[in-house]
Write a structure and sequence with these properties.
With 339 residues, the protein is of the alpha+beta class. The chain contains 10 helices and 15 strands. The protein has a domain at 149-327. Helices cover 35% and strands 16% of the residues.
């Protein structure tokens, strides 16, 4: 029997209160899977109150535990009034950020926000780009998805990322998957695959097969590669390498996996390639009246494509969203009737 698409959805995320992108995703997931297809600020307060632990941005000594992602937590405050006040304030912050999302995504946001009742609900008529948004939302929420079902999301997310990178590269560029599960151009042992890539980008690989494990079939942190030959066979051509990550908490460590700082010691090119990081998370926010990034201090030197850019670029380039949407996951999640 196939595991349901979402699990433990009534449990609040193990996320810092400053990580509004994760909390807003949680609210959207609860709305998506709720029997009434809506979720309110008060419902979030209730969910927080039912949680056994409350995440803190300021951990105290001798009061910490750690989850599998290495995040620190603090035991619930014993004073119930203080806890409730914090939960109320946090819920207000989350719904203020949802107001930002409604503005930033505009007609492409699949939810509607009721300022009076402080709740969101699913729009009655969903377009293909709405469903693509929901597909990205579920891909960004793997902690709520059974591990056996991750591949159906992560593989399609890499395909969506490849489509976007193909549009961003100049006309005539070569764009290919490099990840072991999706590639046809780069096959076999990792040494052979990197050797082929070095030839493609007019570079050299300063490694021998003996430097690798005997059966290494990994991807060395690369999911997509692209280059333009500029009409001849000489060196000095533009190239771009990309990593695609659905992790909600580990993305700062993954941003540089496709970068020259990670691979450049062994893969030599006359001109450094551009580094892209694709994520299904929405890290957009408003600071000082201008659009900005959440948690920008954790960013590395990479071009970042997050959910907002995915949606806007898909619309701008008129990419048909249906073929890069995990439709079965979307339909199954929306068919849930949870409370």
């Amino acid at each position: 029997m196939t595991d349901p698409v979402l699990k433990d959805i009534t449990s609040a995320p193990n996320a810092g209160r400053h990580e509004l992108y994760r909390w807003c995703d949680y609210i959207e997931l609860r709305c998506l899977s709720h029997v009434d297809k809506r979720f309110s600020r008060d419902a979030l307060v209730e969910s927080l109150s039912e949680s056994a632990e409350i995440t803190s941005d300021e951990p105290e000594e001798n009061n910490e535990s750690e989850n599998e992602d290495g995040e620190e937590y603090i035991e619930a405050v014993s004073d119930s009034a203080t806890v409730n006040d914090r939960n109320e304030q946090h819920s207000d912050s989350c719904f203020r950020h949802l107001r930002w999302r409604a503005s930033a995504f505009g007609e492409h946001w699949p939810f509607a926000l009721d300022e009076h009742t402080k709740e969101i609900c699913i729009k009655p008529e969903l377009t293909d780009i709405h469903k693509f948004y929901i597909s990205l939302l579920i891909s960004a929420s793997l902690s709520y998805v059974p591990k056996k079902r991750w591949r159906g999301l992560t593989g399609l997310f890499e395909e969506a990322s490849t489509e976007i990178l193909r549009r961003l590269m100049p006309q005539g560029a070569e764009v290919h998957p490099f990840g072991a599960a999706n590639t046809k151009r780069y096959t076999g042992h990792l040494f052979d695959r990197l050797t082929k890539l070095a030839q493609d980008v007019r570079g050299t690989l300063d490694l021998k097969r003996e430097h690798f494990a005997p059966h290494d079939s990994g991807d060395s942190g690369l999911d997509i590669v692209a280059w333009h030959d500029l009409g001849d066979e000489r060196k000095c051509i533009p190239a771009a390498f990309a990593q695609c990550g659905c992790t909600a908490s580990g993305w700062p460590d993954k941003m540089l996996q496709a970068s020259p700082s990670h691979l450049g010691a062994h893969l030599k090119t006359t001109h450094q390639w551009e580094t892209y990081y694709f994520m299904p998370l929405d890290l957009s926010t408003e600071i000082g009246g201008r659009m900005d990034w959440q948690m920008l201090s954790d960013f590395s030197s990479a071009i970042v494509i997050d959910r907002l850019r995915f949606i806007r670029l898909t619309a701008s380039y008129t990419i048909p969203p249906a073929h890069i949407t995990a439709a079965a996951y979307v339909n199954e999640a929306m068919a849930l009737d949870l409370t």
